[in-house]
């Protein structure tokens, strides 16, 4: 473990952002810096560009207690954005980075007297293999899922919310499919698979999904911090609660993907695969990747098949009520901005 500078004394605006070099985390860091707030990030490698802007960088792995102890020093709020994401991999790796890291960070924050902890979760913590249409926070956390990511994130969220006290206030946000200009995951993955001819419409092709623009997800985190209550003041309405965060504009998944492809001059996806067939292919791929083992991710898994075929859209009434959350960037605005950026990068 290494640190770039001595930790500051605690100030009301000081914030730790884990995952601060990732897509959502970097947007959150920018908002905090723009507000003149002291910011710390944790990174596995030095970040001189961030340090040059006054960000304190703690180098190390989050599941290590000493790293967490150093990272939380001086913080009034922890934004725990970091996680191991993906649809495939060893369960132990996901457990270490999602559960053990969260556990270590909570213990460090409690010991240091940090009053507010905003935990970035995911809607997949309520995965049940069924269509989720207008689902709300009353759904139970998943205990059975063919992917280690939702399972370990569900454990982490449960432990995080369970640690809430009058003095240590925790809430969990579940942003769904974060996207926007600079997204390194969702849209690039769609484009790469489409261009390689490996994308299929799974199921009936009329399933609706929620997405959330990165600017809206960032705003939700700042609103959640406020809704936990001011340090030393009464506990806010968000303490101990989880919230779905979306654009509140469910789209037909395959129409949105094909409209995006057409806008970029790419052929739309027309080939189809039934959910049962995709699930069977996924099971075979998982077995092959597990036994051989093969490198990278399988081209299909049972979890991916379900995600591509089923409804996944959520009721955000609780976030509107308790956080004052209201999406500012619409799907149309965000898509137009994204298309313009992708066209510009393609022409460069």
Distance between the termini: 40 Å
Helix run count: 12
The percentage helix is 40-55%
Radius of gyration, in angstroms, nearest whole number: 20 Å
> How confident is the prediction overall: mean pLDDT?
94
Strand content: 15-25%
Structural class: alpha/beta
> What is the overall shape?
globular
The fold-level CATH name of the domain at 10-182 and 211-246 and 312-328 is: Rossmann fold
Say how many strands there are: 16
Give the CATH H-level superfamily of the domain at 10-182 and 211-246 and 312-328.
Answer: NAD(P)-binding Rossmann-like Domain
Uncertain segments: 2-8
Order of H and E elements: EEHEHEHEHEEHEEHEEEHEEHEHHEHH
CATH class of the domain at 10-182 and 211-246 and 312-328: Alpha Beta
Widest β-sheet, arrangement of strands: 1-4-3-2-5-6-8-13
CATH architecture of the domain at 10-182 and 211-246 and 312-328: 3-Layer(aba) Sandwich
Taking the sheet with the most strands, its summary is: 8 strands, mixed
Entry keywords:
two-stranded parallel sheet, Rossmann fold, globular, disordered N terminus, alpha/beta, about 40% helix, single chain, 12 helices, about 350 residues
């Amino acid at each position: 473990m290494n640190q770039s500078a001595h930790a500051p004394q605690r100030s009301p605006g000081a914030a730790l952002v884990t995952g601060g070099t990732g897509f959502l985390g970097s947007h959150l860091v920018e908002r905090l810096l723009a507000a003149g707030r002291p910011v710390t990030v944790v990174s596995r490698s030095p970040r001189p560009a961030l340090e040059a802007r006054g960000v304190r960088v703690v180098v190390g792995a989050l599941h290590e207690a000493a790293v967490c102890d150093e990272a939380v020093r001086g913080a009034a709020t922890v934004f725990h954005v970091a996680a191991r994401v993906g649809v495939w991999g060893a369960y132990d790796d996901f457990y270490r980075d999602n559960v053990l890291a969260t556990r270590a960070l909570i213990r460090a924050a409690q010991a240091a007297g940090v009053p507010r902890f905003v935990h970035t979760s995911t809607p997949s913590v309520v995965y049940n293999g069924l269509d989720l249409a207008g689902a709300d926070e009353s759904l139970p956390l998943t205990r059975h899922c063919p992917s280690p990511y939702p399972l370990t994130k569900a454990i982490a969220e449960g432990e995080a919310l369970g640690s809430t006290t009058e003095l240590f206030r925790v809430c969990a946000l579940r942003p769904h499919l974060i996207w926007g200009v600079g997204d390194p995951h969702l849209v690039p993955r769609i484009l790469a698979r489409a261009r390689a001819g490996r994308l299929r419409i799974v199921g009936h092709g009329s399933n609706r999904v929620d997405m959330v623009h990165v600017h809206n997800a960032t705003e939700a985190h700042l609103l959640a911090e406020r809704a936990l209550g001011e340090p030393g003041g009464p506990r806010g309405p968000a303490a101990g609660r989880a919230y779905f965060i979306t654009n509140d504009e469910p789209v037909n998944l395959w129409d949105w993907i094909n409209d995006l492809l057409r806008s970029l001059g790419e052929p739309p996806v027309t080939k189809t695969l039934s959910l049962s067939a995709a699930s069977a292919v996924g099971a075979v791929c998982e077995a092959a990747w597990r036994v051989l083992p093969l490198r990278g991710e399988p081209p299909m898994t049972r979890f991916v098949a379900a995600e591509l075929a089923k409804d996944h859209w959520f009721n955000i009434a609780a976030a509107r009520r308790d956080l004052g959350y209201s999406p500012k960037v619409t799907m149309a605005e965000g898509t137009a901005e994204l298309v313009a950026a992708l066209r510009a990068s393609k022409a460069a």
